[in-house]
Structures are given as structure tokens and as C-alpha cells.
Specification:
Blueprint: E1 7-8, E2 11-15, E3 22-27, H1 31-48, H2 53-69, H3 71-82, H4 86-97, H5 100-109, E4 113-115, E5 118-124, E6 127-131, H6 139-150, E7 154-158, H7 164-175, E8 183-185, H8 190-198, E9 204-208, H9 211-221, E10 227-231, E11 236-240, H10 246-258, E12 268-274, H11 278-289, H12 310-325, E13 329-333, E14 349-352, E15 369-375, H13 379-386, E16 396-398, H14 402-411, E17 418-419, H15 423-426, E18 440-441, H16 446-450, E19 454-460
Bound molecules: nicotinamide-adenine-dinucleotide.
């Protein structure tokens, strides 16, 4: 997903998507600077790896306290750099620093396991590159960096070129609590990312971003057999059966199509509604969508911000145009603030009668669009439609028949299935975050996810004197 961020004369021209104003110019790291950072990370890793997981986690907890102290600054940068509405920026920050339980599970996951004469310990890989996206500019860094660091790796963060100041501010806060060079930051776009991935002195690459970038990273990492964890895009289905709590389903359909201005990997993107309730569902979703107000994220009255860039806004605008030209019904389109040069607002849009011939039902729609279609209401058709995608991140099923919901959930090809809920909002902290198909290659969080950042080693000991 190219962001259309201007890099000029070796600087990222960092622009506010609500106002078009340049908020800062951030120097891109040169190849020489990156190589120096990689060397320092390898040197620091030797001593960091000697500490126990508990010692490392104590450092990380201290680091998160410092992040908390920088919360106001981080919230402001998020709004200025990528336009997140202030309430959502604060929510992201609160979730980010409240990681004690996450770190406790992580600590347990790293404990040695003893089986008779054999002890399984976990070795770090070495230096892990964390390449992050712009849509959750703080949390998406930490979800990969914390397990990498706790496992004894040192890390190099490359924030998305859209949010360089947020990334730098976060890393600086963590650095105050950690030994030198255990965490470092480099800046730049995909060119810088590719240089890091290609370095033989980087031992693992953990990226969250688009499936297109993920594919490039796999290709680049393959000749060196480098470990990769990739969290990528989605086209998440929501199934609404005729016995669903319709008000709740319509409310959630709108809320989770629009949150973060629709720029979420696991946004609800395809809503399939049983035909017997389709008309009423359209009325309810339109009512809920009308409650949202588009505007600058700095103003708490605005619940949908600008899209991240004009380029991304134009892609979504074209998807809506294509859908309407092919017969989709435009149920609602909100007002947007008056256009100023460089701003990138897109109206809250509700579409009915979407079909698979429309981009809005097949490609990732990273914008504030609610898109629905009717289906015959059967389990078989629900499963067929939900799985008709190359992606497999989240999904949701709304019905009062919990047995039916479980049957359908087992057959949906996705890492997370919410039954009468939006999975990520209600899921236990112990769950891994997983993408099936093109949505993920490796994964993070939960014991399964934490284990991806280290490699097991069996030490088998026989005492010759025994
Ligand atoms: P992106 O693919 O454009 O960029 C992701 C990161 O990779 C950035 O830091 C970028 O600079 C870097 N990069 C780009 N090209 C590279 C290359 N050739 N080599 C190395 N690094 C390169 O993604 P984005 O637009 O920043 O983020 C939005 C995407 O992220 C969406 O597709 C969204 O679904 C996905 N996402 C997924 C999850 C998840 O958990 N599955 C979470 C958040 C976002």
C-alpha cells in the first residue's frame, strides 16, 4: 500500500492529512547509518541475551512507564501525522501502556520446560527488524518489539514513513529504560525497509503492513532463510443471520466499519445479511452511520478523521464510484469539511447491494465505508461467502443460535471469529493474533505468538557419575 508520502532530498515531508500542513521534516537514514545501527544492535545483543527473561521484562515494564509519561505527546503526534480522532488516539495509548498481563504471559512462555533429563530452553535469533504500519503507530510497534526484546533479541524499529515522529518518540521513551542500543530507530520508506531486510546481520524480520509488502519481504528474506513474521491485510466478513439481535448487529457493523476511519486491518468490510431482515438492517445501519461526524481529529466532536493521505482517499473514492456504477445502492453519505489543499477527508458512506464484481467487496477498503449485501440466510451460503477471499484475518457471526454459530465459526478460514461480538474488542489477552491465507505468515501475541520470536533448544544431560 504505497502511501504517497513525499520523500524529498533525503527527508520525509511529514504532512497533516486534516490540514495539508507540513508538521515536520524527518531525515531518512542513509545506508551507511543503517549499517552502523545494525552493527551496534549485534554488539548489544550479546549482553542483552545473557539476562534472564524476568530481568528483561523488568526493563520493559520500566520502559512502558516512560511511554506513559510521554502519552500526551504521542497522542498529539498521532493526530498530526495520520489524523486519528483524539478519543481513539487516547484509547490506543491506554491499551499500549497497560501491558502488565501481556508481559506476565510472555514471561511464562519463556520459562524453560523440563522433561526428565531434557530441558527445553529458548534462544533468541539475534537482531530483529520491526517494520511497522501507520494505522496504529504505537501499538503495532510494541506488539512485535516487546516479545522480540523479552526473548533476548535486540530490535531496530522502522516506523512507517507516515508516522516517523510518533515512532521516534516511542523508541526514545523506551530507550531511557533499556541498556544502550537494545532498541534503536531508523527512518525512511520502503527503500530503507528493503535495505534492512537484505542485511545479512539482521536475523529476523517482523512486519505489519500490506500483503503486497509482505510478499516482497518473503522474497527478499528467502535466500538467507531469514525468519519472518508478517501480519497483513484483511477483507473481513460479517454474517448476520435472521435470528440475530439486529440492533446490536447493525450498531457493531457500523462501529467496526468506521473505527480508525475504517483504516483497520480487521475492519468489517463485507456484511452479509439474511434476506428476510435485509430492509430493516439497511434502515438501522443508516441510522447509526448518521451519528458519525467527519473532521479534524483534534476536535473531540469529530468521530471520523481524515484518511491517511489523498492517495488512499482517492482509492476508496474510486471503489465507491465503481460500486455505484455497477448497481450498488448509496444509502448514506455524510458531509465532509471544506476541502483545503492537501486534506484528505472521505465521507462516511453506506452501500447496499454490493457484489463480488465490485472492488469494494474484493479489495481491502481502507476507509470509512459500510458495505453490505443480502444472502439466502443458510449456513452453507454464509460459509461460502465468508471464505470467498484471499484474506483470512477476522470475521464475525451474529445469531442467537450458538450451536449454529460454532458450526459456522469452525469452517471460516480466519484467525479470529467473533460470535455476537467484534473479536478483537472482546478477546482474551492470552489469544494469539493470527492471519490465515494472505493475511498472515507467522503471527504474534499469546504463547503461540510469543514463541515465534525465539527458537527452542533441547539440552539433554546425562550425569556420568550417576
Ligand atoms: P505497507 O505495506 O505500506 O508498509 C508497512 C511497512 O513496511 C512500512 O514501515 C513500510 O515503510 C515498509 N515497507 C514498505 N515496502 C517495503 C519493502 N519493499 N521492504 C521492506 N519494508 C517495506 O503498509 P501500511 O500501509 O503502512 O499499513 C496498512 C496495511 O497494514 C493494511 O494492509 C493493513 O491491513 C495492514 N495491517 C495489518 C495488521 C494485522 O495485524 N494483520 C495490523 C495493522 C495493519
Amino acid at each position: 500500500m504505497g502511501q504517497g508520502v513525499a520523500v524529498d532530498g533525503g527527508f520525509i515531508i511529514n504532512t497533516n492529512p486534516a490540514t495539508g500542513e507540513v508538521v515536520s521534516k524527518v531525515k531518512c537514514s542513509t545506508a551507511e547509518e543503517i549499517d552502523k545501527v545494525i552493527k551496534a544492535a549485534n554488539e548489544a545483543q550479546e549482553t542483552w541475551a545473557l539476562k534472564s527473561p524476568s530481568e528483561r521484562i523488568a526493563f520493559l515494564k520500566k520502559g512502558l512507564k516512560e511511554v506513559d509519561r510521554q502519552a500526551d505527546k504521542l497522542v498529539e503526534w498521532m493526530i498530526l501525522e495520520m489524523g486519528k480522532p483524539i478519543a481513539e488516539a487516547k484509547e490506543e495509548l491506554e491499551g499500549t501502556v497497560d501491558k502488565d498481563e501481556f508481559l506476565d504471559i510472555l514471561e511464562k512462555a519463556l520459562e524453560p520446560q523440563v522433561y526428565g533429563s531434557s530441558t527445553i530452553i529458548r534462544d533468541p535469533f539475534g537482531v530483529v527488524a520491526v517494520l511497522s504500519p501507520w494505522n496504529f503507530p504505537v501499538d503495532e510497534i510494541l506488539l512485535l518489539a516487546l516479545p522480540a526484546l523479552a526473548s533476548g533479541n535486540t530490535v531496530i524499529i522502522k516506523p512507517s514513513e507516515v508516522v516517523p515522529e510518533t515512532g521516534a518518540c516511542l523508541v526514545k521513551a523506551l530507550q531511557t529504560a533499556l541498556p544502550p542500543n537494545v532498541i534503536q530507530v531508523v527512518q525512511g520508506d520502503g527503500v530503507v525497509g528493503a535495505h534492512i531486510v537484505g542485511s545479512p546481520d539482521i536475523h529476523m524480520v517482523a512486519m505489519t503492513g500490506s500483503s503486497a509488502t509482505g510478499r516482497k519481504i518473503i522474497e527478499m528474506a528467502a535466500p538467507q532463510m531469514k525468519r519472518v513474521v508478517l501480519e497483513m491485510g484483511g477483507k473481513d466478513p460479517m454474517i448476520v443471520f435472521d435470528d440475530a439481535d439486529m440492533d446490536k448487529a447493525a450498531h457493531d457493523a457500523v462501529k467496526y466499519s468506521l473505527s480508525n476511519t475504517g483504516q483497520v486491518c480487521c475492519s468489517i468490510e463485507r456484511i452479509y445479511v439474511a434476506e428476510s431482515i435485509y430492509d430493516e438492517f439497511q434502515t438501522l445501519t443508516t441510522k447509526y452511520a448518521a451519528e458519525y461526524k467527519v473532521g479534524n481529529g483534534m476536535d473531540p466532536a469529530n468521530t471520523v478523521g481524515p484518511m491517511v493521505s489523498q492517495g488512499q482517499r482517492n482509492i476508496v473514492r474510486e471503489q465507491v464510484k465503481d460500486a455505484v456504477a455497477k448497481g450498488a445502492k448509496l444509502l448514506h453519505q455524510s458531509e465532509v469539511p471544506e476541502h483545503v489543499e492537501g486534506s484528505s477527508f472521505h465521507p462516511v458512506t453506506v452501500l447496499a447491494d454490493a457484489t463480488e464484481s465490485m472492488d469494494v467487496f474484493t479489495k481491502e477498503t481502507f476507509g470509512p465505508v459500510v458495505a453490505m449485501a443480502k444472502f439466502d440466510g443458510s449456513e452453507a451460503e454464509a460459509i461460502r461467502l465468508a471464505n470467498k477471499t484471499e484474506y483470512g484475518l477476522g470475521s464475525s457471526i451474529y445469531t442467537k443460535d450458538l450451536e449454529k454459530a460454532r458450526r459456522v465459526a469452525r469452517r471460516i478460514g480466519a484467525g479470529q471469529v467473533g460470535i455476537n461480538c467484534y473479536a478483537i474488542e472482546a478477546m482474551d489477552i492470552a489469544c494469539p493474533w493470527v492471519g490465515h491465507k494472505h493475511s498472515g505468515y507467522g503471527f504474534h501475541s499469546g504463547v503461540d505468538g510469543f514463541h515465534q520470536f525465539s527458537i527452542p533448544k533441547s539440552i539433554v544431560m546425562v550425569d556420568p557419575s550417576a
